[in-house]
Structure formats: structure tokens, C-alpha cells
């Protein structure tokens, strides 16, 4: 009975189903963990005040967010140096985000549950998100204007809302002037300098050119001085106000309002207020620039860089992949050479991605980019233009990496088109190229689109080759801006995958960076899942469209 059961193949079917189920459970579990850790980071956690007994017996007040809890068996805790009594079976520890790094030197602290004498949620506790030194936890005492106290006690929060709103508006104006207006002037001055050097190398520099350039430079200098004067006024206004705050030890600290991003009191917030705050912080995460070595703030430059690189990669890989597949299937003589090419294409799909990165760095950046600089940008020497890693070389490298996927998918789609359709089209008087363009390629388009989107999904998650050919920890400017030629293919860029690696493994503050790692990983997974769903929808739509023709 058992022997016949095995011969029927049922055990292998059940084994395969069990393996698929286990994989699905693991994938769903990982996604659930990432979702809980990542999305929960933006929720306004309560600020807890602990009355804590130190090892020397002194009672100390500790305030902060309860981030994590660990339970360690007594035997393991004793082996690591903890002293436990005989009736203690486990050691329970809390990870508290205490903030105030500029005061204590650290953001986090582990405390033992057995040493906690009391804990409460004081309503007056506040969180100050700062542009530097991370969060501050404490109470607000007063507001100063030019060093003089203008509000204290119960009036302080009414005055704070208006002052903070003004400070944030001034910061936006300052950022716009520095990045847009003054940045555009600096960019134009650099272009002017390079143009002058180019004319000098061509021996075309003369007094007339010198006068023209001097007039243009004088106009730029005048605009620059005007913007600098505006900046000085804005900085004077934004530095006017400051906050007087108290730490858990009672020490007073002055925080310039110009360094504050947000202030809120989570212990006073209701559910509606927390939901509103949550979506506001989620929006900041998606639209703002990173701060504090990428451990705080948003990831918009990484999102923008990832999307820009994927779009460019798609534009490059699609025509080459489709043309190669059409040639191999429709025009090439089917023989040893063609089989050898197909074997090579399949083997390229299995080459480690870092190998593509090394090839891209050596060939595209140093050889091709270096020659482009020598031929078209001699005035920039010794500073490279295209002879350095950038967006263009990263896109081409990933296009080369994903090219086998597009070729194989397109060729499989072409092979599924019935021969009778080709013969019918030719019998009606169409040429071979017309048959290919109007009949064969449209019917093979579901497979072509599937191959393209799968290539995009793979490219969106690649990190290793990008570390060599263009991605950086923090890009000062985006590859796309308002300065001619608008799309700057030579610039370096940020990427979601590399951002995860950098924040998770290269951050000086691991505990602070961990929630951002989960949140960024979740965003990257959502992007890849979305691309795969798009592939299924497009494939099904095209398949339904051409099903009647196939019949």
C-alpha cells in the first residue's frame, strides 16, 4: 500500500506543498516583523518617568521612551556578570530612549526591572525633535527672545506654537535661498569658469571675451551679495528665539528654536491627535532629507535616486534586450553559435552582481568615462566629470546585469507565437519586418513586459554593484534640478538598498537607526511587490487582448 502510494507521486506533491507553505509563512513572518517595527516607529510613544535605584543605592529619576524589553534566564545573566538573588529566575531589562545626547553622551540606556521603585506618565513631559543631537526629553520652563524671557509658566505653550511656526517658515526660506538661489549662482559661476578655461585651451580667449565674462561674473556677484544680505537677515530672525528646558535631573538647558524640528507632549495626546501626528511623521519620512548621519529625518533623496536609476535602466535595457531576443529567435541561423550565445546569456544571469560592479567601475567609469572627459571636458581636468561613479554608469551597469532576464523572457514570448500567424501575415502580402512589428511583437508583449518588470524589481533591490558605480551615503544635490541641462547624469545619488546597509551597519548610533532600517526596508519591499503586481496586471491585460488573435 505504502509502496503504491509512493509510486503514485502523492508524497512528493504533499512535500512540495509543505515546502511552499513553510516559505510563505517565513516570508509573511518577515514582512510582519518589518511592518510592526517599521510602521510603529512613527507612533508617538508615551514618556515614562522611572524612579530608579542605581548600583550604589542612590535613587535617580530617568525619563524616556520604553523601546524594548529583554528577558534573560538567571544562569545566563549570572554568567555575564549580573548578581541575582536565589528567588530570581529571570533578569528583565528595559531599553529606554533617554535622548539628551548633548547632556549625557548617549541616547539609550538599559535598566533592570527589579531596580525600578516607581514609574509614571507625567503630562508635562515633552519631546523636542532637533536638527542636531537627536531628541530632547524634559519639561519646558520658558521662552527667550534675544536672551530675555518673554513667556513662562502656563503661557509658554501658547507663545511656543506661534514662535515655532515662524522658526520653521524661516528655516524653509533659508533652505530655499541656500540650495536653490545661491546654489544656482554657484553652479552658473562654475560653468562660467569652465567655459573660460575651455576658451583658453583653444587659444580663443581675448580681451572682448574677458570683458563679457567679467560683466557676467559681476552680475552673478551682485545677485550673490543680495542673497547673502537676505540670508543674514533671516539668520538674525531665526536665531532670536530660544527655549529654556529642564532635564530629569533638574538641570536647565537652552535650545535655540532654529535647531528645533517639532515639539509635542505625547502623554497629553489623545488617539485622534496621535493618528494625526503619526501621518505627519510618515509624510516627513517620505518627503524630507535625512539628518544626523541618516539616523533621523526622511529618505526622499534615496526614493528619488532609486526611481530615477530604475527609469534610466529601463530605458537602456528594453531596446537592447528586445533587439537581441528578436535577432536570436527571428533572424539568426539556429546552429552551434546561436546555442552558444544562449548558453552565455543564461550564464550571465547567474554571475554575482558585484562582478558587474567591478566591470562597470573598470570599463564604464575609468575607460569610457575617462576618455569622454579627455575628449569633451578637458577644461574640467584634473577633476573628473564622467570619469567618476555617477547615475549614468550605475544605470548602464544595472542594465547590463538585468539584460539576460529581458532577453530570455522576450525570446520565450516570441517562441510562443504560432508559426501559422507568421505564415498568414506573409501570405497576405506583409513583409517580414511588418509581420514582426505589427503581429509578432504585440503578441509577445506580455512576456516582454514581464521580463522588463522583473528586471526592474531586481534592479531596485541591488546594492553591491551600486557601491562601486555611483551610490553614496548622502548626496548634496539631486540628479534632477532646475539648472541646465536639468538631468545631471554625472552626479552621484542615494539608493534605498544602500541606505538600509549604511544605516543598519555603518551608523554610529545603531539603536537610533534600527527603526529607520525597518521602515526603509518595508518601503523597498512595497516598491518591489508593487512592481511585480504591475507585471502580473500588465501581462494579464495583454494576454486577454491578444487571445483572440492566438485562437
The CATH class designation of the largest domain is Mainly Alpha
Largest sheet: 6 strands, antiparallel
Shape: flat
Order of helices and strands: HHEEHEHEEEEEHHEEEHEEHHHHHHHHHH
Number of helices: 17
Number of strands: 13
Approximately how much helix is present in the residues? 55-70%
Provide the residue-averaged pLDDT.
Answer: 86
Structure description:
This protein has 551 residues and is an alpha+beta fold. It folds into three domains: 48-121, Roll (SH3 type barrels), CATH 2.30.30; 139-268; 301-550, MetI-like (MetI-like fold, Orthogonal Bundle), CATH 1.10.3720.10. It is built from 17 helices and 13 strands. It has helices spanning 2-8, 10-39, 74-79, 101-104, 156-201, 207-238, 271-287, 300-331, 336-348, 353-376, 391-415, 419-427, 432-461, 466-469, 496-505, 510-545, 547-550; strands at residues 48-53, 59-73, 90-97, 108-112, 116-120, 126-130, 135-145, 148-152, 241-246, 252-256, 260-264, 290-291, 296-297. Strands 6, 7, 8, 9, 10 and 11 form a six-stranded antiparallel beta sheet that branches. Strands 4-3-2-1-5 form a five-stranded antiparallel beta sheet. A two-stranded antiparallel sheet has the order 12-13. Strand 9 (241-246) and strand 10 (252-256) form a beta hairpin. Helix 8 (300-331) packs antiparallel against helix 13 and helix 13 packs antiparallel against helix 16 (510-545). It is flat.
Give descriptors for this structure.
MetI-like fold, 3 domains, 13 strands, flat, alpha+beta, five-stranded antiparallel sheet, six-stranded antiparallel sheet, SH3 type barrels, 551 residues
Amino acid at each position: 500500500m505504502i509502496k503504491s502510494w509512493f509510486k503514485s507521486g502523492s508524497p512528493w506533491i504533499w512535500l512540495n506543498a509543505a515546502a511552499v507553505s513553510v516559505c510563505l509563512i517565513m516570508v509573511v513572518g518577515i514582512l510582519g516583523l518589518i511592518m510592526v517595527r517599521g510602521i510603529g516607529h512613527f507612533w508617538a510613544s508615551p514618556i515614562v518617568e522611572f524612579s530608579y535605584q542605581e548600583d550604589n543605592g542612590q535613587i535617580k529619576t530617568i525619563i524616556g521612551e520604553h523601546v524594548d524589553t529583554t528577558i534573560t534566564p538567571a544562569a545566563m545573566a549570572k554568567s555575564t556578570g549580573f548578581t541575582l538573588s536565589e528567588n530570581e529566575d529571570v533578569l528583565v531589562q528595559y531599553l529606554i530612549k533617554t535622548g539628551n545626547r548633548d547632556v549625557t553622551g548617549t541616547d539609550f540606556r538599559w535598566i533592570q526591572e527589579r531596580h525600578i521603585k516607581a514609574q509614571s506618565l507625567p503630562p508635562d513631559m515633552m519631546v523636542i525633535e532637533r536638527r542636531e543631537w537627536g531628541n530632547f526629553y524634559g519639561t519646558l520652563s520658558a521662552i527667550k527672545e534675544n536672551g530675555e524671557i518673554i513667556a513662562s509658566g502656563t503661557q509658554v505653550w501658547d507663545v511656543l506654537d506661534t514662535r515655532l511656526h515662524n522658526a520653521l517658515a524661516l528655516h524653509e526660506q533659508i533652505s530655499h535661498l541656500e540650495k536653490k538661489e545661491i546654489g544656482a549662482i554657484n553652479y552658473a559661476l562654475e560653468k562660467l569658469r569652465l567655459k573660460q578655461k575651455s576658451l583658453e585651451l583653444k587659444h580663443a580667449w581675448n580681451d572682448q571675451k574677458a570683458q563679457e565674462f567679467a560683466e557676467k561674473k559681476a552680475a552673478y556677484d551682485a545677485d550673490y551679495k543680495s542673497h547673502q544680505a537676505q540670508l543674514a537677515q533671516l539668520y538674525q530672525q531665526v536665531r532670536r528665539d530660544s527655549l529654556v528646558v529642564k532635564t530629569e535631573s533638574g538641570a536647565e538647558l537652552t535650545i535655540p528654536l532654529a535647531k528645533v524640528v517639532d515639539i509635542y507632549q505625547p502623554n497629553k495626546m489623545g488617539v485622534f491627535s496621535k493618528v494625526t501626528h503619526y501621518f505627519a511623521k510618515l509624510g516627513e519620512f517620505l518627503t524630507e532629507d535625512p539628518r544626523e548621519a541618516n539616523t533621523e529625518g526622511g529618505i526622499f533623496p534615496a526614493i528619488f535616486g532609486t526611481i530615477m536609476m530604475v527609469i534610466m535602466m529601463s530605458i537602456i535595457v528594453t531596446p537592447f534586450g528586445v533587439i537581441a531576443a528578436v535577432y536570436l529567435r527571428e533572424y539568426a541561423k539556429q546552429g552551434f553559435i546561436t546555442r552558444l550565445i544562449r548558453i552565455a546569456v543564461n550564464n550571465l544571469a547567474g554571475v554575482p552582481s558585484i562582478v558587474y560592479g567591478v566591470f562597470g567601475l573598470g570599463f564604464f567609469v575609468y575607460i569610457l568615462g575617462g576618455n569622454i572627459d579627455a575628449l569633451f571636458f578637458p577644461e574640467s581636468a584634473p577633476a573628473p566629470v564622467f570619469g567618476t561613479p555617477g547615475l549614468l554608469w550605475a544605470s548602464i551597469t544595472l542594465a547590463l546585469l538585468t539584460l539576460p532576464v529581458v532577453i530570455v523572457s522576450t525570446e520565450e514570448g516570441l517562441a510562443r507565437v504560432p508559426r501559422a500567424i507568421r505564415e498568414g501575415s506573409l501570405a497576405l502580402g506583409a513583409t517580414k519586418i511588418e509581420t514582426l512589428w505589427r503581429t509578432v511583437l504585440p503578441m509577445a508583449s506580455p512576456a516582454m513586459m514581464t521580463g522588463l518588470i522583473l528586471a526592474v524589481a531586481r534592479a531596485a533591490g541591488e546594492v553591491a554593484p551600486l557601491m562601486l558605480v555611483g551610490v553614496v551615503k548622502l548626496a548634496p544635490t539631486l540628479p534632477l534640478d532646475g539648472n541646465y541641462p536639468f538631468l545631471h547624469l554625472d552626479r552621484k545619488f542615494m539608493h534605498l538598498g544602500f541606505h538600509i546597509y549604511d544605516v543598519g551597519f555603518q551608523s554610529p548610533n545603531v539603536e537610533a537607526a534600527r527603526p529607520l532600517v525597518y521602515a526603509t526596508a518595508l518601503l523597498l519591499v512595497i516598491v518591489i511587490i508593487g512592481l511585480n503586481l504591475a507585471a502580473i496586471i500588465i501581462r494579464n491585460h495583454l494576454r486577454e487582448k491578444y487571445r483572440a488573435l492566438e485562437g
